[in-house]
Amino acid sequence: MKFKFAALPLMLASAVASAAQYSSFTDVDYTAAxxxxxxxxxxNLDSRYYFGALETLGPRKEFGYILPVSNINGGFAYTDxxxxxxDASYVGGEYYTGQWKVFGGLSDTDLSxxxxxxxxxxxxxxLLAEVEAVKREDVxxxxxxxxxxxxxxxxxxxxxxxxxxxxxxxYRSVSSKYFTALSGGQYLTAxxxxxxxxxxxxxxxxxxxxxxxxDTSIGATYDEAESYRFHATHFFNENIAAKASYGSNRDFDxxxxxxxxxxxxx
Length: 266
Description:
It holds the Pfam family Porin_7. This protein has one helix spanning 2-17; strands spanning 21-34, 39-55, 71-81, 84-97, 100-109, 113-124, 127-135, 142-152, 158-166, 171-181, 187-197, 200-211, 216-223, 227-235, 240-249, 252-265. The protein is mostly beta strands. It has one domain (20-265): Carbohydrate-selective porin OprB (Porin, Beta Barrel). A hairpin with a 5-residue loop joins strand 8 (142-152) and strand 9 (158-166). The termini are far apart. Mean pLDDT is 92; it is low at 1-17.
């Protein structure tokens, strides 16, 4: 009996150490959208590198709600719509020093070039406040105020909240994500988002994802416009995953959006 109690801390330490760690994330996705009267094909590349390892919460693609780790990111998208092509690119980064955070980014499309820059402060590891300035081409600079809060539950379980308003208070949004470990090495996430603006009705959207294990998951999303999407992800090993999705709209049967992609985590 004494041996069993003495071995317990070692077993717990081993379980903690077994959590996977990653610092580089790259996604390549191809989307074929059929809107009835026209087709749109998009090839998208996104990549992010963290200057520090991120530890998974169990599933290989689930991490903490607030990630105070400096990083750089960028991406490129090429779109073909009935023979008319366009492209878009972006680059950005976040830098943390102590409790302070500074961040910025640049996005460029065929129509405009947009800039964003901001700063944040970590009051606690679970509470982050940010202010962001967004400058769109030929549009006045807009200020956004944002707060993120992580409420830690048992183990790695959490429920996180994000609230955001603009400087004129004519845009307001709140979102939440819940993560929990189930029995038998399974996991569940659920999300809800609400967006209210002075120019449109209240928008809401929800999502749910079920993990059979750390490698395989299925999920669905649904929103106020009656658009829905089903998706699945499977990791073949620690670093490479395949993903696929299908989306449509209950009011427009002719809308079909298929997507396939690959994720590489290192």
